[in-house]
Amino acid sequence: MSAVAPHPEAGAFRAARSPFLWLLEREIVRFLKLWRFALVGQVLSALLFVLVFGIALAGRIDAVGGVPYKRFILPGLVVQAVFTVGFVNGTTSLFEARHDGYINAVLASPLRWWEINLALVVGSIVREVIVGAGVLALAGPFVGLGFSRPLVAVGALVALLVTGAQVGVLAGAYARSLDDIYSIESLAVLPLGFLSGIFYSVDRLPGVWRTLTHLDPLFYFVEAARIGVLGTGDISAGVALAVAGGIAAALTAWSLLVFRSASTLKP
Predict the structure, then answer these.
(1) Total count of domains within the chain
(2) Which residues, in sequence order, are bridge partners of residue 67?
C-alpha cells in the first residue's frame, strides 16, 4: 500500500490587517455609526455659540483688542469643541469596553499595551479633527477666518488633539460608573472651558480672576489657538505652546503607565 503524499505546507498565517488597524477601525466605526450625535451635534453646538455670541450680539459687544468679537471667540470655541469631543469619545469607548468585558479580549490579544493606547487615542483624534474642521468650515465664512501665525496654530492643534484624547482615555480608565463620567464632564470639563478666556480677554479681569484663569490648563490652549489665528494674545506664543505641549506630554506619560500596568483597565 503506497504512502499518502503529505499535503504541501500552506505557509504561515498572515492576517489581512494588523491587530492595531482592526482596533483602530473599530474605534472609528463606533462613532461613525452615531454620526448625528457624535459629529453633527457637536459641530452645531459650537456653531450656535458663534451665531448667538459672535453675530447676534456682535453689535452690543465691543471689539477686543481691535478684533471683531465674532473672530475673537472662534479659536476658543474650536478648542472647547475639540477638547470636549476628545473627552467624550475616550470615556465612552473605554468605559463601555470595560463595562461589557470587551477590554479583556483586547488585553489578551497580540496587541502590545502601547498599541491599545495608540489606537484609542488616534480614534479620538480622528473624531476631534472632523468636528474641529466642521466648526471652522461652517463658522469661517461668518467671521472671516484666517491664520496669522500658521506654525503656532499647528502646534496648538497637535497639543490640543493629544490632550483631549488622553484626558478621555484616562477618565474612561478610572471611571467606575456613568455617574463618574457625567460628574467629570459637569464639574471639570465644562467649567475649565468657560473659564479659559474663550469669551473675554484676561487683561480685562481683576487680579483674583486673572490668577484663576492662568491656573486653568485650557487657557493656554485657547491662547495658543488665538495667537495662531489672530496673531496676538494675552500671553506670548512661546509660553502658551510650552505649557500646552507640557500638558500633552504629561498626560501621555500618565496614560501609557496606566496601559502598561493594565490593572486599572480591568472591569
Answers:
(1) 1
(2) 64
The verdict on residue 102 lying in a domain is yes
C-alpha separations of 260 from 19, 78, 116, 264 in Å: 18, 32, 10, 10
Calpha distance 161→127 (Å, rounded): 10
Phi, psi of 174 (to 5 degrees): -95, -20
Q: How far apart are CA 185 and CA 171, in angstroms?
A: 10
Give the predicted TM-score (pTM) of the model: 0.88
227 membership: H or E segment, kind and range: helix 217-230
Residue 266 lies inside a defined structural domain of this protein:
no
| Contact criterion met (CB below 8 Å) for 233 and 214 | no
Beta-carbon count within 10 A of 195 CB: 17
pLDDT in tens, the chain (267 residues): 455 555 555 555 465 678 899 999 999 999 999 898 889 988 998 888 888 876 666 666 767 777 888 888 889 999 999 999 999 999 999 988 888 888 888 888 889 999 999 999 999 999 999 999 999 998 888 787 788 999 999 999 999 999 999 999 999 999 888 899 889 988 899 889 888 988 888 887 877 888 888 899 999 999 999 999 999 888 999 999 999 999 999 999 999 999 998 888 876
User: Domain range spanning residue 139?
Assistant: 19-261
Task: Work out the angle at residue 212's Cα, subtended by the Cα atoms of residues 211 and 218, and round it to the nearest 5 degrees.
Answer: 115
